[in-house]
Amino acid sequence: MNRLKNLILLGAVMVLSACTSPSLSHYDNTTPTLDIKEYFDGPIQAWGVVQDWRGNVTRKFDIEMVGSWDGDTGTLEEDFVYDNGKTQRRVWNITKISDKDYEGTASDIKGKARGQTNGNAVQWQYQMNLEVDGKTYLVTFDDWMFAMKDGVLINRSYIKKFGITVAELTIFMKKK
User: Fold this and answer.
1) Contacts (Cβ under 8 Å, ≥6 apart) of 28
2) What are the structural domains, with CATH classification, of the chain?
3) InterPro entries attached here (predicted)?
4) Distance between CA atoms of 59 and 52, rounded to whole angstroms?
5) DSSP conformation letters of 50-62
6) pLDDT tens for residues 52-100?
7) Pairwise CA distance, residues 139 & 50, whole Å
8) What share of the chain is helix, strand, coil (3-state, %, to 5)?
């Protein structure tokens, strides 16, 4: 009986710990500082993979991006080419709300994406209508971007449905 209680307790702790997210404050004073307006201005090349909940790579893709800004309003055009030859275009409209806060919209985003910067990190959170095998699902993205040296940016996204991570996305970006 004690063993069963311990297993239940361990399971509960694992479920609760899976629900927590890192804190953006962890990245206070980290460098290089990530300035969204500066990084997403001009051409960027990117490469990514999608992994299912088991860690298996289910998609690979390349992205050509071009960002431009007019004051505190920016546009980021993303052109995806997937490993199966399929292409996709997404255009983000981004607004700088305050020193560290941003909002973004795109055609497949429900409502507004909310972004915050701190040190070398940016966290974006939003809901997206994601097509998978001919069906569309409303999922939540928890995006973390980290500035590296030499114009490299690493993006880790946790794709969630009902609060459970169902897939992960990793993108490596390089300013041209």
Assistant:
1) 118, 119
2) 2-175 (2.40.128.20)
3) DUF3833
4) 9
5) EEETTS-EEEEEE
6) 999 999 999 999 999 999 999 999 999 999 999 999 999 999 999 999 9
7) 14
8) 15, 60, 25
The whole-angstrom separation of Cα 1 and Cα 7 is 10
User: What pTM was estimated for this model as a whole?
Assistant: 0.85
**pLDDT tens per residue, range 38-53:** 999 999 999 999 999 9
Q: Compute the distance between CA of residue 94 and CA of residue 116 in angstroms, rounded to an integer.
A: 12
Amino acid type, 52: D
DSSP letters for 62-100: EEEEEEEEETTEEEEEEEEEETTS-EEEEEEEEEE-SSS
Helix locations, the chain, DSSP H: 2-19, 36-39
Residue 112 has pLDDT above 60, yes or no: yes
Strand, coil or helix: 134:
coil
Going by C-alpha positions, the residue among 23, 70, 64 that lies closest to residue 45 is 64
CA dist., res. 40 & res. 95, Å (int): 12
Rounded to whole angstroms, how far apart are CA atoms 155 and 143?
7
Q: Which stretches of 43-176 are DSSP H helices?
A: none
End-to-end CA gap in the chain: 61
